[in-house]
């Protein structure tokens, strides 16, 4: 089969010109069969065959020519043809017709039809046509550059010189590429819509099954998968999970007829069933029992399973099933094969990462995690308490706030508020029922569309009312100047409903009961100090699951809902709050007897940058009532507070953290699905290092430092202290300003307005910080007698964070001072010295002094340290001058207790000691580039005294300033005496993380503004000058850092711009990382007619189909890559400390441990840093980028860009001569 492209006669000399051009510019060869010139064009696997007859007689004006395009090829999609550099047959036809050619599609010349249009005399010669034989000599390389998109005929300017032909070819190529790009973007948009509809439909079908709306779910699925759904502009829904959801729903009912019908529909829809599909079928047959119909169906399903290479064993090994489901499936399997026995698959426990292969978990030493803290019985009680809290969903704590009003006034306002809340609760119940009934009518009368009705039936009505009731208080106590957008509020309420639904589902299916059984055994092992060698929490949990008959019923994947669904649920509930919660505006006026009810909340629009967003604000009367009432209790979701028992170990990307409350392993925006896909595709043992590091950090028990808590609380309730960074109490009236005085000039009014605006912002910031401190101190007071744990998760780069946001060690100075280890360790020989050094480190006074000098200084000022411990508020207050005053005071108290003990070496210390990195980002850059000078400045190389990179930069900048001042530069003269370490510290620290000159100027300007005596009118000019000098100094100190940064930045720019893909890599410990930055998408509504709140509308694309944001991708790659290395080093240190039985906690690059184990931890830290950077990190990154993003064929971009990208990804930056082994 061949497709013949006919070309009109052309001038003989011009044909020779073309032939010469082809020989010089296009790869070609002579045909051995016809002695004709065969030219390869950009059309992938197509060959242009030109054949000129012998030179015609003198005077002949025309020749005969033909072009044969080979048709024998594999059909591809437009996207595949574009990636291969070719175009579809329709595009070739269109291009040929546009240039005056006629395309004949028959097999032989005799069958060629004449064109419908009348041809000129010069277009009638169609002789000597023949086919190209299938000869290997005719097959040319398909990766040649595109040079000729077609032969232009019928025009005097059709065959020009080579340069003109090149320009024409590039123009044609650009036009074709543009069309292809537009087509591909349209395909991506359709794929995006399809994915969004699929996710929404999956959620909808799940809740339909949960609520028993099986027929409704079936009809909606048929609607979206039928041909009648063209108006949605979506692709074919082929996700097998859509059908599996209904299959398992009908299987639970024993409806074998409906299950069989769904399997038939899948067959006719070209949807291939998987193991989960057949598991549902077998479950249904097991429930029906051995009947004639079930046996026939089982035999048919068994044949289909064999055809799809699915065994009965895989029904048990590859799917998470409940115990009851397993029993039913086994019952069906025994009908087919009475001798069948399911085999439990072996679980792989060991690491495969080369960096930690030496850690055999079975040979770890006993860590005695809760020795002297609690016994097994106490821990079981704690486990029961934690499970009860998670079932309830919230924790109520007593507030530490003390009202400044007389008790009688406070009680009066509390009584008013209590009456109002009782009334609101009744209103919310009635309104919810009324609105739900209206939505129910729409749900049952609309047989095709998805509504939020099933999502509002998965819980009891009281739970929805309680969620709305809590939202009312949250809104009333919000900040005056800031409120979350309505979008975030809606989503937050939807997430609360989802969280309760997940817990209810686990209670309903018996998962909670099974979890409690296995977890109690885990607690016994956790508290048993004499337990055997296995001390890795992940391995122990995996073994318990394998031993327990209900173990598989514990790790059931939590149901999730898409963001459009969460938002629509929130809209429904917030609509009730906004319309039905009313307030008497004269409520606080005791003398008023006339009531006037108005909505308690109103919406307003506020600028957020260039975007106007809608916010919800409380009525001022309501906000004032809540402030005057000063409620005695605060309520927090269980997921936001510490756990009173050890967290579940992470064993997969879905399971870990809280016992039954869902905990996310990776903190990602909802649209960032690519990284989840990469992690799901990775073998689970590849992620073991990350899991075990999170488990180790979460296994450390904590307690409250009660003396410090009492002291901080005393300062807080007495009005706060700006000197000690404790926020002051907000005014009861909200800080209302007096009206502007009359008679002011326009400029004076503007100045007064700006001053009041600044004051208002300051008050709002103070109120926000006051609320944060109130929550932290109230929670700390609630847990003052408790031992608690902090479950951990991580961001997409691998940096770890404790899940509770309010009470954790990842906080400010005050937050860290009130926490200490629950398990103490004797100080030993050097523990007291490290306590003293730690206190001096916190003051920031001796950063460039040797450790011995810091210890000597601590002994010299011991009287001040003891005075601070004994009289913190009324003594000499030496601790107040510290950079970290509250932690310094906590250290002073611990030193005093140790010194005054009978034997300081036996004193049991609970206080953690910090070892902070020296500008950790620059350390990684210096190690990557083997930069000797840079390594010395960030303490990678041994030196007599510790180096301070910030002070080094200050010295270089000051030298430049002095030279410029001597040369008469005014701004350099003004800066004399003002260039301090603090001024440039943030800029130096963030330079490694990609801060721009604009951002750096703002950082320095902020520091200059805070310096008394510096002229404020010169802040802008001075900050510009210092930014330039700081960047120049860093370039001098770190020669390789800039080169590596530029390589990372350029690579990310070309990957995202030319390849149109997101940058991704794998950390040295095996964690896949994908940068989630994509362009903002316009809201897309699947059904334009469905504009009210009753219909679920997809609104945002998943990053799998979004175009990358080039600017964010390139700017974020260097810092994100360094952060991933930093997290890998922390995890390595964590795992090796756990092996040695060392308590280890981290705040990113700041490592904490007991005073007695500081030396051991420091050694491990250095060893693992060297081990990490002994790997070919940049070389491995280059190979990974080449594998994922390099060009093997011609794509969107022009060929020179392709080669430029490939060359860039191969060009690993050169390294210096620094010997990293000196680090050890």
Structural account:
It catalyses: RNA(n) + a ribonucleoside 5'-triphosphate = RNA(n+1) + diphosphate. The protein is mainly alpha-helical and 1224 residues long. The chain contains 40 helices and 24 strands. A hairpin with a 5-residue loop joins strand 21 and strand 22.
Determine the strand fraction and express it as a percent band.
5-15%
- Major sheet: 3 strands, antiparallel
Strand order of the largest sheet: 5-1-6
Structural class: mainly alpha
Question: Stretches where pLDDT falls below 50 for ≥5 residues?
Answer: 1-159, 1082-1099
Helical stretch count? 40
What is the straight-line distance between the termini? 71 Å
Overall mean confidence score, pLDDT: 80
* Helicity, as a percent range: 40-55%
Number of strands: 24
Instruction: Report the principal-axis shape.
Output: globular
- Which value, in Å, is the CA radius of gyration? 36 Å
GO biological process, one term: mitochondrial transcription
Keywords: DNA-directed RNA polymerase, Nucleotidyltransferase, Transcription, Transferase, Transit peptide
EC number: 2.7.7.6
GO cellular component, one term: mitochondrial DNA-directed RNA polymerase complex
């Amino acid at each position: 089969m061949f497709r013949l492209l006919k070309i009109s006669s052309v001038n003989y000399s011009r044909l020779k010109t073309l032939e010469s051009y082809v020989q010089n510019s296009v790869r070609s060869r002579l045909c051995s069969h016809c002695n004709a010139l065969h030219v390869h064009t950009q059309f992938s696997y197509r060959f242009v065959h030109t054949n000129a007859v012998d030179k015609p007689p003198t005077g002949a004006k025309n020749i005969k020519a033909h072009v044969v395009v080979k048709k024998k090829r594999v059909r591809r999609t437009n996207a595949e043809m574009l990636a291969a550099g070719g175009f579809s047959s329709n595009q070739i036809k269109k291009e040929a017709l546009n240039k005056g050619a006629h395309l004949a599609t028959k097999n032989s010349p005799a069958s060629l039809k004449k064109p419908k249009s009348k041809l000129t005399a010069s277009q009638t010669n169609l002789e000597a046509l023949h086919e190209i034989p299938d000869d290997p000599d005719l097959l040319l390389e398909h990766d040649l550059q595109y040079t000729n998109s077609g032969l232009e005929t019928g025009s005097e300017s059709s065959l020009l010189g080579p340069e003109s032909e090149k320009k024409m070819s590039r123009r044609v190529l650009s036009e074709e590429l543009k069309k292809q790009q537009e087509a591909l973007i349209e395909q991506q948009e359709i794929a995006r819509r399809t994915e969004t509809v699929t996710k929404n439909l999956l959620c909808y079908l799940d809740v339909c099954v949960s609520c028993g709306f099986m027929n409704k779910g079936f009809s909606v699925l048929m609607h979206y998968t039928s041909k009648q759904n063209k108006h949605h502009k979506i692709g074919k829904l082929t996700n097998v999970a859509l059908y599996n959801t209904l299959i398992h729903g009908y299987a639970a009912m024993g409806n074998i007829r409906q299950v069989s019908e769904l399997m038939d529909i899948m067959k006719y829809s070209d949807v291939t069933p998987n193991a989960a599909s057949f598991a549902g079928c077998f479950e249904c047959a097991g429930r029906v029992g051995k009947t004639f119909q079930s046996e026939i169906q089982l035999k048919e399903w068994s044949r289909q399973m064999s055809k799809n290479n699915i065994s009965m064993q895989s029904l048990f090994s590859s799917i998470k099933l409940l115990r009851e489901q397993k029993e039913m499936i086994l019952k069906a399997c025994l009908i087919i094969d009475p001798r069948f026995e399911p085999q439990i698959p072996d679980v792989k426990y060991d690491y495969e990462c080369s960096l930690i292969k030496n850690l055999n978990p079975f040979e770890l030493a006993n860590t005695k995690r809760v020795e002297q803290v609690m016994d097994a019985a106490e821990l079981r009680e704690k486990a029961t308490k934690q499970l009860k809290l998670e079932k309830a969903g919230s924790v109520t704590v007593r507030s530490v706030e003390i009202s400044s009003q007389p008790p009688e006034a406070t009680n009066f306002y509390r009584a008013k508020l209590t009456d109002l809340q009782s009334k609101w609760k009744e209103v919310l119940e009635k309104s919810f029922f009324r609105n739900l009934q209206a939505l129910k009518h729409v749900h049952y009368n609309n047989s095709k569309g998805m509504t939020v009705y099933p999502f509002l039936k998965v819980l009891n009505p009281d739970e929805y009312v309680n969620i709305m009731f809590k939202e009312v208080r949250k809104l009333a106590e919000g900040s005056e100047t800031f409120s979350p957008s309505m979008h975030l509020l809606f989503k937050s309420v939807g997430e609360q409903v989802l969280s309760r639904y997940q817990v209810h589902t686990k209670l309903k299916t018996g998962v909670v009961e099974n979890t409690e059984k296995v977890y109690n055994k885990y607690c016994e092992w956790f508290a048993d100090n004499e337990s055997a060698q296995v001390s890795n929490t992940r391995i122990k949990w995996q073994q318990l699951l394998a031993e327990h008959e209900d173990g598989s019923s514990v790790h059931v994947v939590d149901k999730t809902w898409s963001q459009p669904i969460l938002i629509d649920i929130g809209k429904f509930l917030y609509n009730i709050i906004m319309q039905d919660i009313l307030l008497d505006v004269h409520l606080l006026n005791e003398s008023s007897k006339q009531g006037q009810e108005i909505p308690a909340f109103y919406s307003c629009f506020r600028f957020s940058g260039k975007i106007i967003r809608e916010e919800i604000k409380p009525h001022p009367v309501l906000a004032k009532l809540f402030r005057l009432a000063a409620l005695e209790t605060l309520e927090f979701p269980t997921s936001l507070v510490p756990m009173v028992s050890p967290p579940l170990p992470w064993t997969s990307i879905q399971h870990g953290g809280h016992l039954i409350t869902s905990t996310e392993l990776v903190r990602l925006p909802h649209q960032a699905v690519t990284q989840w896909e990469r992690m799901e595709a990775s073998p689970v043992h590849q992620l073991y290092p990350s899991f075990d590091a999170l488990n180790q950090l979460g296994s450390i028990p904590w307690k409250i430092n009660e003396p410090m808590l009492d002291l901080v609380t005393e300062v807080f309730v007495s009005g706060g202290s700006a000197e000690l960074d404790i926020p002051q109490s907000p005014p009861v009236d909200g800080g209302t300003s007096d009206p502007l005085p009359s008679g002011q000039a326009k400029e004076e009014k503007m100045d007064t307005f700006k001053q009041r605006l600044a004051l208002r912002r300051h008050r709002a910031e103070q109120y926000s910080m006051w609320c944060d401190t109130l929550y932290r101190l109230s929670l700390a007071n609630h847990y003052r007698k408790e031992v608690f744990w902090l479950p951990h998760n991580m961001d997409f780069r691998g940096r770890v964070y404790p899940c509770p946001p309010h009470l954790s060690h990842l906080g400010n100075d005050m937050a860290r001072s009130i926490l200490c280890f629950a398990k103490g360790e004797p100080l030993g020989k050097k523990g007291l010295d490290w306590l003293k050094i730690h206190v001096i480190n916190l003051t920031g006074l001796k950063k460039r002094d040797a450790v011995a000098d810091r210890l000597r200084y601590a002994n010299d000022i011991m009287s001040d340290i003891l005075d601070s411990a004994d009289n913190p508020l009324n003594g000499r207050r030496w601790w107040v001058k510290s950079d970290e005053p509250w932690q310094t005071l906590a250290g002073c108290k611990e030193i005093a207790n140790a010194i005054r003990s009978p034997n300081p070496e036996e004193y049991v210390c609970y206080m953690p000691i910090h070892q902070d990195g020296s500008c950790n980002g620059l350390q990684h850059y210096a190690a990557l580039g083997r930069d000797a000078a840079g390594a010395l400045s960030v303490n990678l190389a041994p030196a007599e005294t510790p180096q301070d990179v910030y002070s080094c930069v200050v010295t270089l900048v000051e030298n430049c300033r002095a030279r410029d001042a001597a040369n008469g530069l005014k701004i350099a003269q003004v800066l004399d005496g003002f260039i301090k370490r603090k001024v440039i510290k943030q800029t130096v620290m963030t330079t490694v993380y990609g801060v721009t000159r604009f951002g750096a100027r703002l950082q320095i300007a902020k520091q200059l503004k805070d310096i008394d005596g510096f002229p404020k009118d010169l802040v802008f000019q001075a900050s510009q000058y210092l930014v330039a000098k700081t960047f120049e100094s860093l370039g001098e100190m770190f020669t390789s850092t800039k080169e590596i940064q530029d390589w990372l930045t350029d690579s990310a720019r070309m990957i995202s711009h030319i390849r149109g893909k997101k940058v991704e890599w794998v950390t040295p410990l095996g964690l896949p990382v994908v940068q989630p930055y994509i362009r903002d998408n316009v809201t897309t509504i699947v059904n334009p007619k469905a504009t009210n709140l009753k219909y679920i509308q997809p609104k945002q694309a998943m990053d799998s189909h979004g175009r990358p944001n080039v600017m964010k991708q390139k700017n974020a790659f260097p810092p994100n890559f360094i952060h991933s290395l930093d997290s890998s080093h922390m995890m390595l240190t964590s795992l090796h400390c756990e092996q040695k039985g060392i308590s280890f906690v981290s705040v990113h690059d700041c490592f904490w441990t007991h005073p007695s184990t500081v030396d051991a931890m420091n050694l491990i830290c250095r060893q693992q840093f060297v081990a990490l950077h002994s790997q070919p990190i940049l070389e491995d990154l280059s190979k990974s980028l080449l594998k994922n993003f390099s060009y093997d064929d011609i794509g969107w971009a022009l060929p020179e860009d392709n080669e430029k990208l490939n060359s860039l990804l191969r060009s690993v930056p050169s390294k210096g001569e620094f010997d990293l082994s000196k680090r050890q």
